[in-house]
Amino acid sequence: MKHPVFRYLYIFYSFVFLLHTINVFMENENINYIVGIFAILMLFVSFPLASRLFKILGGSFLLIGGYLFFTTGQSLHVIPSILTSNLSLLTLLAMLPWMNSIVRSGRFDRNLNLLMKGNVTDLGKLYPRSSLTTHILAAFLNLSAATISQDVLKNTLSSFSKEIRNSFITTASLRGYSLALLWSPLEIMVAVSLFTTGVDYVTVLPWLVFIAVVAYLLDSVFGRLYYKKYAFESMAVNHQPKINKKAIARKMVQFVCALIVFLTLVVLIGNLFELNFILTVTIIIFPFAFIWSLLLKRRKSFWTIGWNNWKAKTNTMQNFIVLFIGLSLFSTSLGDTSFLAVIEKPLSFVTSYPMLVLLLIQVIFVLLSMFGVHPIATVGILTGIITPLLDFMNPVSITLVLITGSVATFTVGTYGLLVTLTAMGTQQSPYRITIRNMPFAIGLWIVGTLVAYLLL
């Protein structure tokens, strides 16, 4: 696994992703079959390099999916065609680092950090600002936004006790981060949920933004009241960073305008060419980021940061490759069996209590995340339940609870990547982080469920 050839996996992965994307437009069955064979090779190459958790998850989907496939009586030669169903999601994942790179090369992250630290007298005032800053960063930077925010907060709160510092970082950064992923077109869970229900992004976007705003305001009130008793000492005034308000305001306007333009392009191009959400975002990311770098006159730094970032991220996609390809076999085989008809009957008894159904979906996400199950895998597990629900419940409502339920796991998933990184960075137990953020997760369930219920 340490052989130099593994440094060049990004070439192989990229070739498969490009071929798949081209065939989305061509819709050629022969090319799709070839891509499926490459997907099998990707699986064999990636499985030894995946983490233990994803080996278990991906292996489980492959075993169960394989068993279900054999019960359908289909010929083995159709398997490659089945394994391509989730390659669009993998292609999107491979393109996300380019958006991360333009934000870094444009130094938007640095300016947002200055905004976070300037002119605060107590932690109550710092809380909503920290949460909002992480929120804005996460819209483009995803996971790195949380680590950047946490590093700045550790510096800013160095005069406070470790317990107060950890509590503040755990709540402000993780909650602000998760609320951005609730509506971001670059968040993979949004893409997976839309892919599962077939709902358009533009249809759910206003409701996702509404849920995010309500949750942010409620959490900001909590933070303002809970942390206002912790005041900065007088010496902190001397450590206030000197900021150029006009320059930062200009950068912020550029950042927000870029986000609005990106969202507008996703909606317009998707509707104009009748492309699905995942494909539209995948195609737009690179040209949008490149043109943005030209306008900012940061082309060289964009290429330098972007190329290295993209290679590193694409080279280490093994976890998602194992999970998504295994999930392809499982979900496709499940749809070809009589299992869906079996579960429809008990579901008919629950349809009289739609609020209970919506709430249970979100509870399942969080409960499984506490045992290390990734929300993408949870969607796969719920596939059999979700499909019949779409026949008698509003798909928009199902989409909303899938997204809010999966996003809530980022703050309480004991073995999740974000909670684990936060635990390592703050030197505290991940279980403590889970307990601190559980009220927020429950609040997000309630808000998401109420909105979804009203749309039924």
From TrEMBL:
The chain crosses the membrane at residues 7-25, 31-49, 56-72, 78-98, 174-195, 207-227, 248-269, 275-296, 317-335, 355-386, 398-418, 438-455. The keyword Transmembrane helix applies. Keywords: Membrane, Transmembrane, Transmembrane helix. It comes from the Bacteria. This is Citrate transporter. It comes from Halalkalibacter krulwichiae.
